[in-house]
Amino acid sequence: MRTTRRSWLGLLAAAALACTAGAGPAAAQNKDVLVFAAASLKNALDQIAADWQRQTGKKVVISYAASNTLIKQIEQGAPADMFISADLDWMNYGQEKNLIKPDTRSNLLGNRLVLVAPKDSTASVNLQPGIDVAALLKGGRLAMGNVDAVPAGKYGKAALEKLGAWDGVKDKIAQADNVRAALLFVSRGEAPFGIVYQTDAAADPSVKIVGTFPENTHPPIIYPIALTKESTNSDAQAFLSHIRSPAARAAFERQGFTVLAPGGQRS
Q1: Which of 12-26, 66-80, 113-127, 177-191 has the least mean pLDDT?
Q2: Which domain, by its residues, includes 169?
Q3: What's the total number of domains in the chain?
C-alpha cells in the first residue's frame, strides 16, 4: 500500500489533479491526508485544508473530480483516506462496495441548483413548469455535467424533466466530465447557459445566476463525507473533525453551501 500511495501521489502531482495546502506536490509524503472530493468543493476545501495545515503542520492532498470518477478510482485501488461526494448515490455505491467506513459517514453540506449565463447576459429566467429552455439557447447548447453519472448533471436532468423541458433540450446538451468543466463552458462563452451549483456560480466572476431551480424539482442536494475502508492514516480522522469545526463551517458558508448537522438537517 505504501508504494501504491506514493505512486498515486506522484501521478496527482504530475497531472496537476491535486492541490496541497501551502506546499508543492513534491512535499507530499506517506503521512499526508489524501482526500477525494467533488469538484464543486474546491474553493472552500482548499481554504479549510490550508487552515488545518497552519494549525497542525500536517498536509492535505486533495484530488477534485466528479464523484462517480472518484469512487471508481477508490474501487480500483486509489489510496484515498477520505471521500466527499456531491450526492448520496455515489456514497451509497461506496458503502455497498465496502469502500468506506460507515461509522464515519455523515451528511456534510447542502447546495442549490442554478442556471448560469455569461456575466454580460441580460437574461432573467423564471424556471417554472412549461418553460422552453431550448428556445432560450437560440441555437446554442446547454452546459451540464454528464446527466447519467455526474451528480450536478443528474440533478439538472431531473429538474428539467420535472419542468417538462427535458425532451425539448436533450439533444442540445454540452455534457462535461464534472460540474466545474460545465461552468467553464459558460465562463468562456462556449455555451449561452449552464446548469451548475449555486456555489460554482459564486466562485466564477465570469458568470451570473439567471435562474434558480425550485428545490422540489430535483432530489435534495446533499454532500456526504466518510473515511475510506482502507485508510490507516490517524490524521484523517483529525481532518474529518476539522471539517466539522466552526472555522470550516464559516469557509463553506462563505462559498454558499448550507452546513448540515450529521443527521442531514440544517445546523
Answers
A1: 12-26
A2: 113-217
A3: 2
